[in-house]
Protein: homocysteine desulfhydrase
Organism: Candidatus Anaerotruncus excrementipullorum
Amino acid sequence: MSDFSRETQLLYVGDQVGGVDHSPETLPIYQTTAFTSHSLEEALDKYEALARGEAYSYIRTSNPNRSALAHMMSFLEHGEASLICSAGMGAITSTLLALLKAGDHVVYSNCCYGESLEIMTDVFAGFNVEITAVNIDNLEEVQAAIRPNTKIVYTEVVANPLMRVADIDTLAKMAHEVGALLIVDNTFTTPYAIRPLDHGADIVINSLTKFLNGHSDACAGSVTSTKEMIDKLDPIIQHCGTPGDPFTSWLVARSLKTAELRLLRQMDNAAKLAKALAQHPCVEKVYHPSIPTFSGYETAKRLFECDSRMVAMMSIVINTEDYDKRNEFTKHLKIAHYAATLGGVRTTYQQPIYSSQAHMPDAERRKIGITPAMFRISVGIENADDLIADFTSALNAIQ
Ligand SMILES: Cc1ncc(COP(=O)(O)O)c(C=O)c1O
Protein backbone atom coordinates (compact mmCIF):
# COMPACT_ATOMS: atom_id res chain seq x y z
CA MET A 1 0.00 0.00 0.00
CA SER A 2 2.87 2.38 0.85
CA ASP A 3 3.75 2.45 -2.89
CA PHE A 4 0.55 4.35 -3.56
CA SER A 5 -0.13 8.04 -3.24
CA ARG A 6 -1.42 9.54 -0.02
CA GLU A 7 -4.98 10.02 -1.34
CA THR A 8 -5.18 6.35 -2.38
CA GLN A 9 -3.67 5.10 0.85
CA LEU A 10 -6.06 7.14 2.94
CA LEU A 11 -8.96 5.15 1.52
CA TYR A 12 -7.48 1.95 3.03
CA VAL A 13 -5.90 3.17 6.25
CA GLY A 14 -8.23 2.26 9.13
CA ASP A 15 -9.59 -0.81 7.37
CA GLN A 16 -7.84 -3.10 9.84
CA VAL A 17 -7.75 -2.05 13.46
CA GLY A 18 -5.37 -4.04 15.65
CA GLY A 19 -6.60 -5.45 18.95
CA VAL A 20 -10.25 -5.56 17.97
CA ASP A 21 -12.11 -8.35 19.71
CA HIS A 22 -13.77 -10.39 17.00
CA SER A 23 -16.49 -11.69 19.32
CA PRO A 24 -18.15 -8.42 20.24
CA GLU A 25 -20.82 -8.44 22.92
CA THR A 26 -23.29 -7.00 20.43
CA LEU A 27 -23.32 -7.19 16.64
CA PRO A 28 -21.59 -4.11 15.21
CA ILE A 29 -23.33 -2.01 12.58
CA TYR A 30 -22.20 -3.13 9.13
CA GLN A 31 -22.82 0.28 7.59
CA THR A 32 -21.36 -0.55 4.21
CA THR A 33 -22.79 -0.70 0.72
CA ALA A 34 -20.62 -3.65 -0.34
CA PHE A 35 -18.28 -6.40 0.85
CA THR A 36 -15.05 -6.64 -1.08
CA SER A 37 -13.06 -9.55 -2.53
CA HIS A 38 -9.35 -9.51 -3.27
CA SER A 39 -9.37 -11.59 -6.44
CA LEU A 40 -11.79 -12.72 -9.09
CA GLU A 41 -11.60 -16.22 -7.64
CA GLU A 42 -12.63 -14.97 -4.20
CA ALA A 43 -15.44 -12.88 -5.72
CA LEU A 44 -16.85 -15.89 -7.59
CA ASP A 45 -16.60 -18.09 -4.48
CA LYS A 46 -18.47 -15.39 -2.61
CA TYR A 47 -21.30 -15.37 -5.15
CA GLU A 48 -21.76 -19.11 -4.54
CA ALA A 49 -21.65 -18.62 -0.77
CA LEU A 50 -24.11 -15.74 -1.14
CA ALA A 51 -26.68 -18.05 -2.72
CA ARG A 52 -26.35 -20.29 0.38
CA GLY A 53 -26.78 -17.26 2.67
CA GLU A 54 -23.19 -17.61 3.86
CA ALA A 55 -21.67 -14.41 2.46
CA TYR A 56 -22.52 -10.79 1.79
CA SER A 57 -22.05 -8.79 -1.37
CA TYR A 58 -24.24 -5.71 -1.83
CA ILE A 59 -26.30 -3.72 0.70
CA ARG A 60 -29.67 -4.14 -1.00
CA THR A 61 -29.20 -7.88 -1.55
CA SER A 62 -28.15 -8.74 1.99
CA ASN A 63 -26.44 -7.33 5.05
CA PRO A 64 -25.42 -8.89 8.39
CA ASN A 65 -27.59 -6.54 10.47
CA ARG A 66 -30.62 -7.32 8.33
CA SER A 67 -29.91 -11.05 8.59
CA ALA A 68 -29.61 -10.78 12.39
CA LEU A 69 -32.97 -9.00 12.64
CA ALA A 70 -34.58 -11.47 10.20
CA HIS A 71 -33.43 -14.38 12.40
CA MET A 72 -34.93 -12.67 15.44
CA MET A 73 -38.27 -12.09 13.69
CA SER A 74 -38.45 -15.70 12.47
CA PHE A 75 -37.75 -16.85 16.01
CA LEU A 76 -40.41 -14.56 17.50
CA GLU A 77 -43.10 -15.33 14.91
CA HIS A 78 -42.39 -19.10 14.71
CA GLY A 79 -41.60 -18.82 11.00
CA GLU A 80 -38.91 -20.51 8.94
CA ALA A 81 -37.57 -17.28 7.43
CA SER A 82 -38.12 -13.51 7.35
CA LEU A 83 -37.38 -10.49 5.21
CA ILE A 84 -36.66 -7.07 6.67
CA CYS A 85 -38.05 -4.08 4.79
CA SER A 86 -37.60 -0.32 4.88
CA ALA A 87 -41.10 0.16 6.39
CA GLY A 88 -44.20 -1.80 7.28
CA MET A 89 -45.68 -0.47 4.05
CA GLY A 90 -42.67 -1.78 2.09
CA ALA A 91 -43.34 -5.24 3.54
CA ILE A 92 -47.06 -5.08 2.71
CA THR A 93 -46.79 -3.65 -0.81
CA SER A 94 -43.90 -5.86 -1.94
CA THR A 95 -45.62 -9.00 -0.59
CA LEU A 96 -48.84 -8.23 -2.46
CA LEU A 97 -46.92 -7.35 -5.63
CA ALA A 98 -45.09 -10.69 -5.49
CA LEU A 99 -48.27 -12.73 -5.05
CA LEU A 100 -50.97 -11.05 -7.16
CA LYS A 101 -51.60 -10.97 -10.89
CA ALA A 102 -54.42 -9.63 -13.08
CA GLY A 103 -57.64 -11.60 -12.62
CA ASP A 104 -56.92 -12.50 -8.99
CA HIS A 105 -59.30 -11.62 -6.19
CA VAL A 106 -58.49 -10.33 -2.70
CA VAL A 107 -60.75 -10.27 0.35
CA TYR A 108 -59.53 -7.72 2.85
CA SER A 109 -60.63 -6.30 6.18
CA ASN A 110 -62.22 -2.87 5.70
CA CYS A 111 -60.75 -1.60 8.97
CA CYS A 112 -57.07 -2.26 8.25
CA TYR A 113 -54.45 0.50 8.42
CA GLY A 114 -55.51 3.21 5.94
CA GLU A 115 -52.54 2.94 3.60
CA SER A 116 -52.86 -0.86 3.35
CA LEU A 117 -56.42 -0.22 2.17
CA GLU A 118 -55.25 2.43 -0.31
CA ILE A 119 -52.72 0.01 -1.82
CA MET A 120 -55.59 -2.40 -2.54
CA THR A 121 -58.13 0.11 -3.81
CA ASP A 122 -55.89 2.68 -5.54
CA VAL A 123 -53.07 0.50 -6.87
CA PHE A 124 -54.01 -3.18 -7.18
CA ALA A 125 -57.57 -2.45 -8.36
CA GLY A 126 -55.90 -0.56 -11.26
CA PHE A 127 -53.94 -3.72 -12.16
CA ASN A 128 -57.21 -5.58 -12.69
CA VAL A 129 -57.08 -7.31 -9.33
CA GLU A 130 -60.58 -7.62 -7.89
CA ILE A 131 -60.94 -6.40 -4.35
CA THR A 132 -63.73 -7.09 -1.83
CA ALA A 133 -63.75 -5.25 1.49
CA VAL A 134 -65.43 -7.06 4.38
CA ASN A 135 -66.20 -6.65 8.07
CA ILE A 136 -63.57 -9.18 9.11
CA ASP A 137 -65.35 -10.01 12.40
CA ASN A 138 -68.45 -11.09 10.45
CA LEU A 139 -67.44 -14.59 9.33
CA GLU A 140 -70.59 -15.10 7.24
CA GLU A 141 -69.76 -11.96 5.27
CA VAL A 142 -66.17 -13.16 4.78
CA GLN A 143 -67.35 -16.60 3.63
CA ALA A 144 -69.79 -15.02 1.15
CA ALA A 145 -66.99 -12.81 -0.27
CA ILE A 146 -64.52 -15.65 -0.90
CA ARG A 147 -64.56 -16.92 -4.53
CA PRO A 148 -62.72 -19.63 -6.45
CA ASN A 149 -60.24 -17.00 -7.74
CA THR A 150 -59.57 -15.53 -4.28
CA LYS A 151 -55.79 -15.58 -3.82
CA ILE A 152 -55.42 -13.62 -0.59
CA VAL A 153 -57.43 -12.97 2.54
CA TYR A 154 -55.81 -10.00 4.29
CA THR A 155 -56.40 -8.85 7.86
CA GLU A 156 -54.93 -7.39 11.02
CA VAL A 157 -55.44 -9.33 14.28
CA VAL A 158 -56.89 -6.31 16.08
CA ALA A 159 -57.65 -3.36 13.82
CA ASN A 160 -57.62 0.35 14.28
CA PRO A 161 -59.53 2.30 15.71
CA LEU A 162 -62.52 0.03 16.42
CA MET A 163 -60.25 -2.75 17.73
CA ARG A 164 -62.13 -5.35 15.68
CA VAL A 165 -60.77 -8.81 16.46
CA ALA A 166 -60.20 -11.25 13.59
CA ASP A 167 -60.74 -14.97 14.22
CA ILE A 168 -57.44 -16.02 12.63
CA ASP A 169 -58.01 -19.82 12.92
CA THR A 170 -61.37 -19.69 11.13
CA LEU A 171 -60.16 -17.21 8.50
CA ALA A 172 -57.20 -19.50 7.72
CA LYS A 173 -59.55 -22.46 7.17
CA MET A 174 -61.85 -20.38 4.95
CA ALA A 175 -58.93 -19.09 2.85
CA HIS A 176 -57.33 -22.54 2.50
CA GLU A 177 -60.60 -24.11 1.26
CA VAL A 178 -60.15 -22.21 -2.04
CA GLY A 179 -56.34 -22.39 -2.03
CA ALA A 180 -55.95 -18.76 -0.95
CA LEU A 181 -53.32 -17.44 1.46
CA LEU A 182 -54.13 -15.76 4.75
CA ILE A 183 -51.87 -12.73 5.31
CA VAL A 184 -51.97 -11.24 8.80
CA ASP A 185 -50.60 -7.87 9.92
CA ASN A 186 -49.52 -8.42 13.54
CA THR A 187 -48.31 -4.86 14.17
CA PHE A 188 -50.76 -3.99 16.96
CA THR A 189 -50.74 -7.34 18.73
CA THR A 190 -47.10 -8.41 18.15
CA PRO A 191 -45.76 -11.97 18.63
CA TYR A 192 -45.92 -11.36 22.39
CA ALA A 193 -49.73 -11.59 22.22
CA ILE A 194 -50.22 -13.96 19.29
CA ARG A 195 -48.22 -15.79 16.61
CA PRO A 196 -50.59 -15.85 13.62
CA LEU A 197 -48.57 -18.59 11.84
CA ASP A 198 -49.43 -20.95 14.74
CA HIS A 199 -53.11 -20.18 14.04
CA GLY A 200 -52.93 -21.17 10.38
CA ALA A 201 -51.86 -17.87 8.73
CA ASP A 202 -49.47 -18.25 5.78
CA ILE A 203 -47.64 -14.95 6.03
CA VAL A 204 -47.24 -12.54 8.94
CA ILE A 205 -46.28 -8.91 8.51
CA ASN A 206 -45.11 -6.49 11.20
CA SER A 207 -44.49 -2.78 11.06
CA LEU A 208 -41.36 -2.74 13.22
CA THR A 209 -41.72 1.04 13.42
CA LYS A 210 -44.30 0.52 16.16
CA PHE A 211 -44.34 -1.69 19.28
CA LEU A 212 -41.50 -4.07 18.40
CA ASN A 213 -38.97 -1.27 18.07
CA GLY A 214 -40.86 0.72 20.68
CA HIS A 215 -38.44 3.66 20.91
CA SER A 216 -40.05 5.81 18.17
CA ASP A 217 -36.73 6.21 16.37
CA ALA A 218 -36.77 3.77 13.43
CA CYS A 219 -38.92 2.87 10.44
CA ALA A 220 -38.88 -0.79 9.29
CA GLY A 221 -41.09 -3.76 8.49
CA SER A 222 -40.88 -7.55 8.35
CA VAL A 223 -42.45 -10.45 6.48
CA THR A 224 -42.26 -13.94 8.03
CA SER A 225 -43.33 -17.23 6.49
CA THR A 226 -41.95 -20.53 5.20
CA LYS A 227 -38.49 -20.57 3.58
CA GLU A 228 -40.16 -21.38 0.25
CA MET A 229 -42.46 -18.36 0.46
CA ILE A 230 -39.67 -16.02 1.59
CA ASP A 231 -37.50 -17.18 -1.35
CA LYS A 232 -40.40 -16.24 -3.65
CA LEU A 233 -40.89 -12.79 -2.09
CA ASP A 234 -37.21 -11.85 -1.80
CA PRO A 235 -36.54 -10.99 -5.49
CA ILE A 236 -39.57 -8.66 -5.62
CA ILE A 237 -38.50 -6.91 -2.43
CA GLN A 238 -35.05 -6.50 -4.01
CA HIS A 239 -36.56 -5.15 -7.25
CA CYS A 240 -38.81 -2.74 -5.37
CA GLY A 241 -35.79 -1.48 -3.44
CA THR A 242 -37.60 -2.01 -0.15
CA PRO A 243 -35.05 -3.95 1.97
CA GLY A 244 -34.18 -2.38 5.33
CA ASP A 245 -30.89 -0.55 5.89
CA PRO A 246 -28.14 -1.74 8.28
CA PHE A 247 -28.39 1.00 10.90
CA THR A 248 -32.18 0.73 11.22
CA SER A 249 -31.94 -3.07 11.37
CA TRP A 250 -29.36 -2.72 14.14
CA LEU A 251 -31.58 -0.27 16.05
CA VAL A 252 -34.60 -2.58 15.83
CA ALA A 253 -32.57 -5.70 16.73
CA ARG A 254 -31.25 -3.85 19.79
CA SER A 255 -34.81 -2.89 20.78
CA LEU A 256 -36.12 -6.43 20.32
CA LYS A 257 -33.89 -7.58 23.15
CA THR A 258 -36.13 -5.68 25.58
CA ALA A 259 -39.40 -6.04 23.66
CA GLU A 260 -40.89 -8.66 25.95
CA LEU A 261 -40.30 -6.51 29.07
CA ARG A 262 -41.87 -3.49 27.37
CA LEU A 263 -44.76 -5.22 25.67
CA LEU A 264 -46.00 -7.24 28.62
CA ARG A 265 -46.05 -4.01 30.63
CA GLN A 266 -47.76 -2.05 27.83
CA MET A 267 -50.45 -4.68 27.27
CA ASP A 268 -51.06 -5.01 31.00
CA ASN A 269 -51.25 -1.21 31.38
CA ALA A 270 -53.77 -1.10 28.51
CA ALA A 271 -56.05 -3.67 30.15
CA LYS A 272 -55.89 -1.74 33.45
CA LEU A 273 -56.51 1.62 31.78
CA ALA A 274 -59.39 0.21 29.72
CA LYS A 275 -61.04 -1.15 32.87
CA ALA A 276 -60.65 2.14 34.73
CA LEU A 277 -61.88 4.31 31.86
CA ALA A 278 -64.92 2.06 31.26
CA GLN A 279 -66.10 3.13 34.73
CA HIS A 280 -65.65 6.88 34.23
CA PRO A 281 -68.93 8.82 33.81
CA CYS A 282 -67.44 10.89 30.95
CA VAL A 283 -66.57 7.80 28.90
CA GLU A 284 -69.39 6.39 26.80
CA LYS A 285 -67.53 3.45 25.34
CA VAL A 286 -64.15 1.73 25.58
CA TYR A 287 -62.93 -0.30 22.62
CA HIS A 288 -60.52 -2.88 24.02
CA PRO A 289 -60.85 -6.66 23.68
CA SER A 290 -60.47 -7.20 27.45
CA ILE A 291 -63.80 -5.43 28.17
CA PRO A 292 -66.51 -8.14 28.56
CA THR A 293 -69.20 -6.01 26.82
CA PHE A 294 -66.92 -5.39 23.79
CA SER A 295 -68.06 -7.18 20.61
CA GLY A 296 -64.72 -8.95 20.03
CA TYR A 297 -64.42 -10.20 23.63
CA GLU A 298 -65.30 -13.87 22.99
CA THR A 299 -62.97 -14.18 19.98
CA ALA A 300 -60.23 -12.41 21.94
CA LYS A 301 -60.63 -14.85 24.84
CA ARG A 302 -60.03 -17.73 22.43
CA LEU A 303 -57.08 -16.07 20.64
CA PHE A 304 -55.14 -14.60 23.54
CA GLU A 305 -53.72 -16.04 26.73
CA CYS A 306 -55.29 -13.46 29.09
CA ASP A 307 -56.62 -9.88 29.33
CA SER A 308 -53.19 -8.44 29.96
CA ARG A 309 -51.67 -10.13 26.91
CA MET A 310 -53.88 -8.83 24.11
CA VAL A 311 -53.01 -5.41 22.74
CA ALA A 312 -51.65 -2.10 24.03
CA MET A 313 -54.03 -0.09 21.83
CA MET A 314 -57.55 1.06 22.69
CA SER A 315 -60.09 3.67 21.73
CA ILE A 316 -62.41 5.58 23.99
CA VAL A 317 -65.48 7.64 23.17
CA ILE A 318 -66.00 10.55 25.55
CA ASN A 319 -69.41 12.06 26.23
CA THR A 320 -68.93 15.21 24.15
CA GLU A 321 -68.07 16.10 20.55
CA ASP A 322 -67.61 19.77 21.44
CA TYR A 323 -64.22 21.00 20.16
CA ASP A 324 -63.48 23.22 23.19
CA LYS A 325 -64.19 20.38 25.62
CA ARG A 326 -62.04 17.95 23.63
CA ASN A 327 -59.26 20.50 23.50
CA GLU A 328 -59.60 21.09 27.24
CA PHE A 329 -59.38 17.33 27.87
CA THR A 330 -56.13 17.06 25.90
CA LYS A 331 -54.67 20.14 27.58
CA HIS A 332 -55.22 18.52 30.98
CA LEU A 333 -53.40 15.33 30.02
CA LYS A 334 -49.92 15.58 31.53
CA ILE A 335 -48.48 12.23 30.42
CA ALA A 336 -50.32 11.21 27.26
CA HIS A 337 -49.57 13.43 24.27
CA TYR A 338 -50.75 13.69 20.65
CA ALA A 339 -48.47 11.87 18.16
CA ALA A 340 -48.78 10.67 14.58
CA THR A 341 -47.55 7.20 15.48
CA LEU A 342 -48.17 4.43 17.99
CA GLY A 343 -46.32 1.70 19.83
CA GLY A 344 -43.72 3.82 21.63
CA VAL A 345 -42.78 3.45 25.29
CA ARG A 346 -44.61 6.71 26.08
CA THR A 347 -48.41 6.86 25.97
CA THR A 348 -49.75 8.77 22.99
CA TYR A 349 -53.17 9.45 21.53
CA GLN A 350 -54.75 10.56 18.29
CA GLN A 351 -58.22 11.34 17.05
CA PRO A 352 -59.16 9.06 14.14
CA ILE A 353 -61.22 11.86 12.50
CA TYR A 354 -57.96 13.80 12.00
CA SER A 355 -55.75 10.81 11.12
CA SER A 356 -56.69 7.27 10.01
CA GLN A 357 -60.29 8.17 9.04
CA ALA A 358 -59.66 11.80 8.01
CA HIS A 359 -60.67 11.20 4.40
CA MET A 360 -63.86 9.30 5.17
CA PRO A 361 -67.10 11.33 4.91
CA ASP A 362 -68.51 12.12 8.36
CA ALA A 363 -71.76 10.21 7.74
CA GLU A 364 -69.84 7.05 6.80
CA ARG A 365 -67.59 7.39 9.83
CA ARG A 366 -70.58 7.78 12.14
CA LYS A 367 -72.18 4.62 10.72
CA ILE A 368 -69.26 2.61 12.13
CA GLY A 369 -69.03 4.57 15.38
CA ILE A 370 -66.14 6.91 14.59
CA THR A 371 -67.10 10.40 15.80
CA PRO A 372 -65.19 13.49 16.96
CA ALA A 373 -65.60 12.10 20.49
CA MET A 374 -63.31 9.13 19.76
CA PHE A 375 -59.70 9.08 20.96
CA ARG A 376 -57.31 6.27 20.03
CA ILE A 377 -54.71 5.57 22.70
CA SER A 378 -51.37 3.77 22.38
CA VAL A 379 -50.40 2.74 25.89
CA GLY A 380 -46.80 3.02 27.07
CA ILE A 381 -44.71 1.60 29.90
CA GLU A 382 -45.49 4.28 32.49
CA ASN A 383 -46.75 3.26 35.93
CA ALA A 384 -50.36 2.12 35.38
CA ASP A 385 -51.68 4.12 38.36
CA ASP A 386 -50.08 7.30 36.99
CA LEU A 387 -51.72 6.72 33.63
CA ILE A 388 -55.14 6.08 35.15
CA ALA A 389 -54.77 9.21 37.31
CA ASP A 390 -53.73 11.30 34.28
CA PHE A 391 -56.73 10.29 32.15
CA THR A 392 -59.14 10.42 35.11
CA SER A 393 -58.15 13.97 36.13
CA ALA A 394 -58.30 15.21 32.50
CA LEU A 395 -61.79 13.72 32.15
CA ASN A 396 -62.86 15.14 35.52
CA ALA A 397 -61.81 18.57 34.27
CA ILE A 398 -64.42 18.49 31.47
CA GLN A 399 -67.21 16.92 33.52
C1 LIG B 1 -51.35 -1.84 11.51
C2 LIG B 1 -50.31 -1.15 10.69
N1 LIG B 1 -49.72 -1.82 9.69
C3 LIG B 1 -48.79 -1.23 8.90
C4 LIG B 1 -48.42 0.08 9.10
C5 LIG B 1 -47.39 0.70 8.21
O1 LIG B 1 -46.18 0.77 8.89
P1 LIG B 1 -44.98 1.76 8.49
O2 LIG B 1 -45.38 3.14 8.93
O3 LIG B 1 -43.81 1.19 9.20
O4 LIG B 1 -44.85 1.68 7.01
C6 LIG B 1 -49.00 0.81 10.14
C7 LIG B 1 -48.63 2.20 10.37
O5 LIG B 1 -49.16 2.89 11.22
C8 LIG B 1 -49.98 0.18 10.96
O6 LIG B 1 -50.59 0.84 11.96
Notes: The domain at 259-396 is CATH 3.90.1150.10 (Aspartate Aminotransferase, domain 1).
